């Protein structure tokens, strides 16, 4: 029966949602059945039910996969994020979310995924440069005055950090807003870390004593910005200690290796940054009490020891009386002893004074003057001779410096020539690579355009379908079609205007029937 001869006034069957869902399910299960799919494992989730949910992906598409509890128990190899595997199972649909999925009952490893392989290669290269060495990591300050936080200002991460710092020990916090996902993540995070280090101590904006780089959890693709080389180098070069708090406890990025300390969560990073003020106050009070108690006990012990020793010494007068008696005895003998000593010294001095005369002193002074004049005459030429020797040494040193300067200029000219040659080689390689890259992009664009034309609705019209339109758009039911003043039917080779009549029959002349082409049954395309 021709489409225009449909007396019911409808050009399509009205399916229920369950009928459509069941039909799609039967088509997918009947067309594919049991299949083997190779791809990289995305995020893996395993709730308390024991079922395992994960993604299989390549560089363009993602397929949802699920393994039931019994299938998971029989697996010899369980899929992990980043693994490249071959999953065996059957295709089906999940009507609750209008999606198709792969029920996997066996997983075979097929090598590491592309992202994980790239990540491991980058980790080894940066580790070889010493960026992850434990010896270069700086200690975290015990109580920083200013804390810089590099994260998104609109997420829950910054609220968790600020709330935890306020609970433990309120500090001055500087927030450097960045994108924590996407192409802008890596350059913004690297710029933030270097920006905090560039702040001058004592300036208008205080320089942080500690930096926290934080982000919530996510897949390896979401966290990839923190695996970029620019971010790793910025964190490794930071003069300010850095705590990495990227993702959850099971997430690991290259920034975690380069940071001075890694926190499993952003909240844990805040706990590492500052101590608990209430605990410090309690500890200080306890220490003060213990110190006072120890000091009091020490004084009591010393006082008791002093009293015990005092009882063993006896009366002080008994100790000083013998010394006082000896002093009185020597005091009586001191006066006569001094007078006797003066008389003996005078007796020895008198003969010596008789031997000394003014002439003898003048002769002694004259001899010493001659010796001084001789030493002065010998000393006068010495500075001039030292000056001549210094001048000769300076001249020789100047000749050696001139020769060294000439050698340095020659070496610099040779290095400049070598650098120019290397630059010319790199420029030639760049000119050769650009045409090939442009040609590859042009071929890819042509393939995508051919795919667009193949998947367009005009190709579907060529298989015998048609589109019915009214003044308000596409018509999908008989009741709506009867109310339209005019209809337009689009076929693969043109359009036909139709004016609905009484009883739903069209008044326009019927087009010549064409022999239906092999393919799906004819009807309207919505």
From TrEMBL:
The keyword Manganese does not apply. Residues 15-108 form the OB-fold nucleic acid binding domain. Its EC number is 3.1.11.6. Its main location: cytoplasm. It catalyses: Exonucleolytic cleavage in either 5'- to 3'- or 3'- to 5'-direction to yield nucleoside 5'-phosphates. Residues 499-526 are annotated as: Disordered. InterPro entries: Exonuc_VII_L, Exonuc_VII_lsu_C, OB-fold_nuc-bd_dom. It holds the Pfam family Exonuc_VII_L. Residues 131-404 form the Exonuclease VII large subunit C-terminal domain. It is found in: Cytoplasm. Keywords: Cytoplasm, Exonuclease, Hydrolase, Nuclease. The keyword RNA-binding does not apply. HAMAP family: Exonuc_7_L. Belongs to the XseA family. Heterooligomer composed of large and small subunits. NCBIfam families: xseA. Bidirectionally degrades single-stranded DNA into large acid-insoluble oligonucleotides, which are then degraded further into small acid-soluble oligonucleotides. PANTHER family: EXODEOXYRIBONUCLEASE 7 LARGE SUBUNIT. This is Exodeoxyribonuclease 7 large subunit. The lineage of its organism: Bacteria, Pseudomonadati, Pseudomonadota, Alphaproteobacteria, Rhodobacterales.
């Amino acid at each position: 029966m021709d489409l225009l001869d449909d007396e019911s006034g409808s050009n399509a069957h009205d399916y229920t949602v369950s009928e459509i869902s069941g039909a799609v399910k039967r088509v997918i299960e009947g067309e594919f059945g049991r299949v083997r799919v190779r791809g990289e494992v995305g995020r893996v989730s395993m709730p308390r039910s024991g079922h395992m949910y994960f993604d299989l992906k390549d560089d363009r598409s993602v397929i949802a996969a699920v393994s039931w509890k019994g299938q998971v128990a029989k697996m010899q190899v369980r899929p992990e994020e980043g693994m490249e595997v071959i999953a065996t199972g059957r295709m089906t649909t999940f009507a609750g979310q209008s999606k198709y999925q792969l029920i996997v009952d066996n997983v075979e490893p097929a090598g590491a995924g592309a992202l994980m392989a790239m990540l491991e290669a980058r980790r080894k290269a940066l580790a070889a440069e010493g960026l992850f060495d434990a010896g270069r990591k700086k200690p975290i300050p015990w109580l920083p005055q200013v804390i810089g936080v590099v994260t998104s200002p609109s997420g829950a991460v910054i609220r968790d950090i600020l709330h935890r710092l306020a609970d433990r020990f309120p500090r001055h916090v500087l927030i450097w807003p960045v994108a924590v996902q996407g192409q802008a993540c890596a350059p913004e995070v690297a710029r933030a870390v270097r920006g905090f280090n560039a702040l001058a101590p004592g300036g208008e904006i205080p320089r942080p004593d500690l930096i926290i780089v934080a982000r919530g959890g996510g897949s390896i693709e979401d966290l990839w910005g923190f695996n970029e080389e620019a971010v790793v180098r910025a964190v490794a070069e930071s003069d300010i200690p850095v705590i990495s708090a990227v993702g959850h406890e099971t997430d690991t990025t290259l920034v975690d290796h380069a940071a001075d300390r890694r926190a499993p969560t952003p909240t844990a990073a805040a706990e590492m940054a500052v101590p608990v003020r209430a605990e410090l106050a309690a500890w200080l009070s306890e220490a003060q009490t213990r110190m006072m108690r120890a000091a009091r006990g020490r004084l009591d012990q010393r006082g008791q020891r002093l009293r015990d020793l005092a009882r063993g010494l006896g009366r002080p007068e008994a100790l000083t009386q013998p010394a006082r008696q000896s002093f009185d005895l020597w005091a009586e003998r001191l006066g006569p002893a001094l007078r006797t000593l003066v008389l003996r010294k005078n007796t020895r001095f008198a003969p010596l004074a008789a031997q000394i005369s003014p002439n003898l002193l003048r002769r002694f002074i004259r001899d010493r003057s001659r010796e001084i004049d001789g030493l002065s005459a010998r000393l006068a030429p010495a500075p001039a001779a030292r000056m001549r020797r210094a001048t000769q040494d300076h001249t020789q040193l100047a000749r050696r410096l001139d020769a060294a300067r000439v050698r340095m200029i020659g070496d610099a000219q040779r290095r400049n020539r070598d650098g120019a040659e290397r630059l010319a080689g790199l420029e030639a390689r760049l000119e050769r690579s650009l045409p090939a890259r442009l040609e590859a992009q042009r071929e890819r664009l042509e393939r995508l355009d051919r795919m667009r034309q193949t998947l367009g609705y005009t190709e579907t019209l060529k298989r015998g379908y048609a589109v019915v339109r009214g003044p308000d758009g596409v018509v999908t039911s008989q009741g709506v079609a009867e109310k339209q003043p005019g209809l337009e039917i689009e076929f693969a080779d043109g359009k036909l205007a139709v004016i609905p009549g009484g009883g739903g029959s069209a008044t326009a002349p019927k087009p010549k029937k064409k022999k239906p082409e092999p393919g799906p049954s004819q009807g309207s395309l919505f």
